């Protein structure tokens, strides 16, 4: 019997499917495995390459399988899809993963450590709270409009809204039930502001302690939040041969539909990590705005903190 060289593993919540192949790509076995028996199954396998899709839980299983002596490769799901034959099920997905991993030109995702994922979770939690804060501010503005109060856009006018709602004259002009709900939303908004401020301090502390983040903050337009996000969410710098490759990974390069020797470039692809792309665009926009206000000479830009700009990004999109 041929030796298993590579195993394609289709992961899920409770049921997994493994597809083993030899050095020539011929199928050796296909096995359905429950979650509780997965590590025992791979502990009994000789050291080989295990390929998984880079989806939820993939980095956890990659770390576990690496400890068992296997070489783990994570593949973006978009690169696995072309290898799926007609119908879709767990066995076919595992076979497609196994076949995709054997391609010489295949691109893989670096396995993240628990610390990297924790840093990314801190940033994503802040991002979630900022979006909820933006939704709450827009809800207050929208409901006030129903009673004839038109408030300016932007979080900078929240203080005015708070004073307006708490005034006795406004309270008397609003139904009691509506006024109570506005006060409830203001309390929620205060809590969110406090939690966002706490996370800002945590992110700033992490940025000061991390060597990569400190180096990134020397770039104009990148502050603690952007630096922490890049360090946590982006692959290692050595993954990219040049800066243009990183721009392509971010989705900041144009779509290409060239054919017949004719180059046809379209709009920005936006196919990469949109969170980092948003932060970098906001940071660079802030640099340009500050430079224009201060009258900086050509070639000289003023350094701004992109981290402080991200809190208002959701409001800008709603205008």
Tell me about this structure.
The protein has 319 residues and is α/β, with parallel strands linked by helices. It folds into 3 domains: 6-101, ATPase, nucleotide binding domain (Nucleotidyltransferase, domain 5, 2-Layer Sandwich), CATH 3.30.420.40; 114-214, no CATH class; 216-318, no CATH class. 51% of the residues lie in helices and 12% in strands. It is built from 13 helices and 7 strands. It has helices at residues 38-43, 58-67, 77-80, 90-101, 114-145, 158-166, 168-173, 176-209, 211-216, 224-233, 243-250, 274-294, 313-318; strands spanning 6-10, 15-21, 27-34, 49-53, 71-75, 254-256, 265-268. β1 (6-10) and β2 (15-21) form a beta hairpin. α5 (114-145) packs across α10 and α10 packs antiparallel against α12 (274-294). It starts with 5 loop residues before the first strand and ends with a helix.
| Beta-strand content | 5-15%
Rounded to the nearest angstrom, the distance between the terminal CA atoms is: 65 Å
Q: Please write the string of helix (H) and strand (E) elements.
A: EEEHEHEHHHHHHHHHEEHH
Structural class: alpha/beta
The tally of beta strands, per DSSP, is 7
Helical stretch tally: 13
Rg over C-alpha atoms, rounded to the nearest angstrom: 25 Å
Q: In terms of per-residue confidence, which ranges show pLDDT below 50 for 5 or more consecutive residues? A: 299-319
Query: Can you give the helix content as a percent range?
Result: 40-55%
Spatially, the strands of the biggest sheet line up as 3-2-1-4-5
Mind summarizing the main beta sheet? 5 strands, mixed
Mean pLDDT: 86
Large-scale geometry: elongated
Question: How many individual domains?
Answer: 3
